[in-house]
Amino acid sequence: SLPLQIMRLLCGPHAALIPPSRPLWGLLSKSGTPPAQVACRAGPGTQSLPGPSDVLECNTLRPHLRSRHSPFNESSHFSGRFVSDEDRVMLNAIYFSSSSPSADRVRCSAPVAGLGEKAGLVVPPTSSGGEAEAEDVCIPLPTWGMRAGPRESIYFEPSLTRAAIVTVGGLCPGLNDVIQGLVRKLRDYGVPEGSTFGIRYGFQGFYSKKHRPVVLTGRSVEDIHLEGGSILGTSSIAPDYRKIVRMIDLMGLDMLFVIGGAGGHMGATQLEALLTQHGVRCVVVGVPKSIDNSILLVDRCFGFETAVNEAQRALFAAKVEALSTWHGIAVVKLMGHASGFIALEASMASGIVDACLIPEIRFLLDGEAGLSTYLDRLLQRQGSAVVCVAEGAGQHFFDTPHRDRAADRDVGPWLAAALKERHPGAYVKYIDPSYLVRSVPTVSSDRTYCKVLAHNAVHAAFAGFTGTTVGLVNTHYVLLPIPFVTQAPRRVDPQGNQWNRLRAANGQPNFT
């Protein structure tokens, strides 16, 4: 019967069912789990709750804090469902039957102490890596992650809570959206006006005499989502973390929200360690920012879809330039230091890119398999060509034995000059929209995503989690330990579906 089928879905295909004393309809709880009146007796093959060893767990300050009921228990504005610490999200959405499937995420096995062979994340090398980066890296990955969301018990008294927000690293669409979302959700919990602070121009703003922290209120963040950039300013300068810890203690902060990329999250990890070392009870929660979409394990970072959408404008302009001259070649450089996701997605979406170059593939410029020869054939066949290059591509052409982002050569002008030299009869145009792409307001999908990430960051902080960031993994919001996501950047898999879809669409070779 249909009720029996539903019960088997709820309890598992191998569970023995004990029928309820009254009809099933109306018995199902709001959480979607079997209510107390419906018993599920484990049968052979029934999966039990995953143990701690198979869950990517996050640190908490709960042993040092007192729990209390969430204010949403009595709020007429909250009709959602609470999340339990036992709720799990499967990090491996697909089971692979072979060690080299056609996929982008998980396709390796890695030995884990006490667990034997476990699935892992594959991180492809960069095109300009040395011998140490010549092979794929496999990072062990537990099966489950902790679900993000509001808990029924919280560990800070909202009326006494003091919080701070800081943006770290380069600009990215959505920074203001996240700031607004954090301030408003803190207010929803009952944090008083005047108790949420914005730290100016990165971590150094904690102790800078020129830029004091500012008070963030509902009114001060009213329409900031309509503007690009960050109202707090941002910086990538390495700070003095001990000074920051002293200021956090002096300000009486209970929560610090770090909106940043890999560098910002590494800084958050250092802060968490020092706060623990000095006995300062302040949770540190991150919101992952990467316009390159290079945060490990996370499906996508906020601002990425906006960046792809904006990057297409430059590609369309490049197409017009290339078509408007005889044998026109247009080169567009997009952001992507270690990962080529923006170049890949913009090229795929626009449908007008003839050659896409990304950091993950060491391309040849000359020879039969090289880019220049391929462009020769394109010019003879169609009269024009558009080349999209990520900023981190082609670094193997320069003398950089020890890869350092600050020392990377600007591949865009170099490539345009190299193509002009090799195609003297062609008109080569170069477009760099990098700062235009990262400074615009968000598109609607990113705007919503920013809000949800911000809300989940506040939920995590009130639940006592620290050294934690929030992200979308396999379409579900998950709490992730910061040290895990900063191990390596997420990169395009040259053997994966995304890259090969583009090659199938535009017909380009790998140029290797």
Task: Please describe what this structure looks like.
- The protein is an alpha/beta fold.
- It folds into 4 domains: 1-48, no CATH class; 88-146, no CATH class; 152-301 and 442-473, Rossmann fold, CATH 3.40.50; 304-439 and 495-506, Phosphofructokinase domain (Rossmann fold, 3-Layer(aba) Sandwich).
- 28% of the residues lie in helices and 19% in strands.
- It has helices spanning 2-11, 175-189, 241-251, 262-277, 304-323, 341-350, 371-382, 411-422, 434-438, 444-462, 482-485, 497-506, and strands at 16-18, 39-41, 55-56, 59-60, 68-69, 88-90, 106-112, 116-123, 137-140, 144-147, 153-154, 163-167, 196-199, 214-215, 255-260, 283-288, 328-334, 355-357, 384-390, 427-431, 465-466, 468-473, 476-481.
- The strands form 6 sheets. Strands 3, 6, 10, 12, 13, 14, 15, 16, 22 and 23 form a 10-stranded mixed sheet that branches. It has a 4-stranded parallel sheet with strand order 18-19-17-20, sandwiched between helices. The chain has a 3-stranded antiparallel sheet with strand order 7-8-9, with no helix packed on it.
- Helix 2 (175-189) packs across helix 10 (444-462) and helix 3 (241-251) crosses helix 4.
- The longest helix is centred in the middle third of the chain and has 20 residues, at 304-323.
- The radius of gyration is 25 Å and the shape is elongated.
- The relative contact order is 0.15.
- One of its GO terms (biological process) is fructose 6-phosphate metabolic process.
- This is Phosphofructokinase domain-containing protein.
- Keywords: Kinase, Magnesium, Metal-binding, Transferase.
